Amino acid sequence: MLKTILAISGKPGLYRLVSRGNRSLIVETLDETHKRQPAFGTDRIISLADIAMYTDEEEVPLRQVLNNIKAKEEGKQVSSIDLKSASKEQLFDFMGEVLPSFDRDRVHASDVKKLIQWYNILIQNDITDFDEDLQETPGDNVDDRK
């Protein structure tokens, strides 16, 4: 599932890949509007399956970090942190519980905030199987639901 969930630089929230056009991708917002729009090659688009978090030893795939948050929060949204007023220390304390060996020099407070926002968006949209991509076969990366 994370292969079809996209982050677009400069645009808030997350998007689901719906279809591929000639020179664009058709994406749908993961919010209550489910608005569809094109995303072009000039946009910086990245699949959540391609994102990793820095640790002291190696990079850890985002799916593993999301699973760690899911286990900590018992499958519910993160409610222990108010993202509007959270301090760097609060965000790093949370991250330390989720991924103890995260690299405090290369992971910024804004990265942790974005991670929590993304996790909450995924949970709101009932996207909770973060390991599903491991079982997909090549070519299963487009969601054909209308």
What labels would you give this structure?
146 residues, Arc Repressor Mutant, subunit A, two-stranded antiparallel ribbon, globular, alpha+beta
Describe the structure.
This protein has 146 residues and is α+β, with helices and mostly antiparallel strands. It folds into two domains: 2-48, Roll (SH3 type barrels), CATH 2.30.30; 52-124, Arc Repressor Mutant, subunit A. Helix content is 26%, strand content 21%. The protein contains three helices and seven strands. A five-stranded antiparallel β-sheet has the order 4-3-2-1-5, with no helix packed on it. Strands 6-7 form a two-stranded antiparallel ribbon. Strand 3 (24-29) and strand 4 (36-40) form a beta hairpin. The protein is globular and about 45 Å long.
* Oligomeric organization of the protein chains: single chain
- Structural class determined from secondary elements: alpha+beta
Rounded to an integer in angstroms, the radius of gyration calculated over CA atoms is 16 Å
pLDDT averaged over residues: 89
Major sheet: arrangement of strands: 4-3-2-1-5
CATH class categorisation of the largest domain: Mainly Alpha
- Cα end-to-end separation: 16 Å
Uncertain parts? 136-146
The total domain count is 2
Q: Quick one: biggest sheet?
A: 5 strands, antiparallel
